Amino acid sequence: MRPSAARLLNILVPVKRAVDYAVKIRVNPQQTGIDLNVKHSMNPFDEIAVEEAVRIRERLKEAVKSIKVVTIGPPKSAETLRTALAMGADSAIHVEIPESDPSPEPLGVAKTLKALIERQKEGVDIVILGKQAIDDDAGQTGQMLAGLMGWSQATFASKVVVDAENKVANVTREIDGGLQELKCRLPVVVTTDLRLNEPRYASLPNIMKAKKKPIEKLLAADLGVDLTPRLETIKVEEPPKRVGGGKVENVDELLAKLKDAGITAIKRA
Amino acid sequence: MASKATRVRAIALYKELHRLGRDYDPSYDFHGKLRRMFEKNRNLTDAEEIEQAFKFGEYIKKETLALYSLRKYRHLKRMYPSSSLSDP
Fold it and tell me: Does some domain include residue B46?
């Protein structure tokens, strides 16, 4: 049955090449940042975003025209795009920055994405990305992009149901205190939470097939965006080492220690 | 190795398992075990036995993938605990 939507949906998934989740983060000797000479991989929340885009297409079938992934990063970030292509994205865009450049800030990323979206002749209906990157934990890009574009936004999504015909996305969000359901008109920016889905494994045959999928290379300057950082990191240091706990022999000793610590009993009303 | 088809299939499975083994705990010697298991079965001729061996390989692949998924999920859940009062 031909979808009656006037235009088919285009999904854009920004991904980030971030420090791998299993790496033990260490502060660099200059105390200006973390040691980046470690294993990197796709930000886990972005993996969830790619997976969700692929699942949306599996559910809506021909109503989804394309799934494009984009990354802003050094040449090595192309690997991250290949992984996303192997998971099911159709094509990729690599906004390349020099290896020596600092990582772009969320506002810079949002502005770049805005410029990219405006460049897409067929438009973008859904932007889905991770709620935060596990190396900087900023959690700002999605919101900033929605603000810049004037689009609806649904962050910390734990469930996304797209109604292509009515151009609406019903998103369940994880918030303090429970779940919230939002009905958002497309176009929409969705950021993913951990419990949205379980990303698929990119098998070797799929990785091979992904090598044939196109990756468009661009520079931030081509998009008229300046990625110069606006923030300066003054100092980064490790949290104080955890002081070991002590063992007590009996309840009386426990009470004595609590009292020493200044904790007193509350009188029952 | 019975036929060309099984040979191709075996090599594909080996490559896939080898790639998966890269993230395994090095003390387990995943690659060593993988190689020895494949070498042990290299002279199988009975179609039934060959199929069993393939099924076992596929099973190991699924188990290893499940292990990785769990490890990652648990790690991330610890890093980003749910602060909501409801059960996530």
Answer: yes
